[in-house]
Amino acid sequence: MTVLSVSRRTASRRNVARTVRALGVVSASAALTIGLAGSAAACNINEFSAEAKCVGDKGVITVTDVDPAGVPATVTVFLENNGADEKKIGEQVVKGSREGVTITFEEDWQPNAEYRIHVKAEPYVDEDIKPNLTTPATACKEEEEPPAPSEPAPTPSDSASTPSEDEPGTPAPSEPEPETTAPAGTSDNAPSPSVGESNLAETGADSNTGLIAGIAAALVAVGGGAVFFGMRRRGANSDS
């Protein structure tokens, strides 16, 4: 009896020990699961979102944190250029809530610009919001086009002197008549006559040479007739 009771007590103790160990393993697993779930619920990059907006004619970038645990997170915004940080726009700290907390960065962004938003909430988050933020294709303030240059109005002299081709019945401008007089410089370019030619001209066309020649021819004819009749008369006298 004594041996049997001792064996039962030993078995009972072993069962209790096994049960305690099992409960310890279950409790540790539950604690680990709860701890991981609490860490995941504390802060996550998926709880952050960014957007490019317009406030009047100015551009802004907003970042919203919906972390229900309200873990402080540092948000930094960078302007990207060909995959590299060109300029740091700003940095702010946000404590999220279940309803969401929004912070604003004043940035007069250009259309289709790219921004990188980095979130750091130790010891949970240290990464960028994916994908990068791309601004809308339309700017907040539309640029005014410069007015087209106006054509100068025609002056009265131009409109009076230039007839319109579209108006019917407009007389065509008359062509200039050719000049009949010789150019003024013609006499200067012609060679001047020599001294001898000038004397001959003065004794020829400008004198009475023709009249004198006619009288001389008449006198020659009269003289010839007188000689002819004189010789004939002398012959008749010699025959008699």
What does this structure look like?
- It contains 5 helices and 8 strands.
- It has helices at 2-42, 156-161, 186-189, 195-203, 209-239; strands at residues 48-55, 58-65, 72-81, 84-95, 101-106, 114-121, 125-128, 133-134.
- Strands 3, 4, 6, 7 and 8 form a 5-stranded antiparallel beta sheet that branches. The protein has a 3-stranded antiparallel beta sheet with strand order 1-2-5, with no helix packed on it.
- A hairpin with a 2-residue loop joins strand 3 and strand 4 (84-95).
- The longest helix is centred in the N-terminal third of the chain and has 41 residues, at 2-42.
- The protein is rod-shaped, with a radius of gyration of 66 Å.
- Residues 31-40, 194-198 and 200-205 have low confidence and may be disordered.
Summarize the structure.
Helix content is 38%, strand content 24%.
Topology at a glance:
Elements: H1 2-42, E1 48-55, E2 58-65, E3 72-81, E4 84-95, E5 101-106, E6 114-121, E7 125-128, E8 133-134, H2 156-161, H3 186-189, H4 195-203, H5 209-239
Antiparallel strand pairs: 1-2, 2-5, 3-4, 3-6, 6-7, 6-8
- Give the oligomeric state: single chain
| Distance N to C terminus | 242 Å
**β-sheet strand percentage:** 15-25%
Total E-strand runs: 8
Shape: rod-shaped
SSE sequence, one letter per element: HEEEEEEEEHHHH
Main pleated sheet = 5 strands, antiparallel
Radius of gyration: 66 Å
Tell me the number of helical segments per DSSP (H or I, 4 or more residues long): 5
* Uncertain residue segments: 31-40, 194-198, 200-205
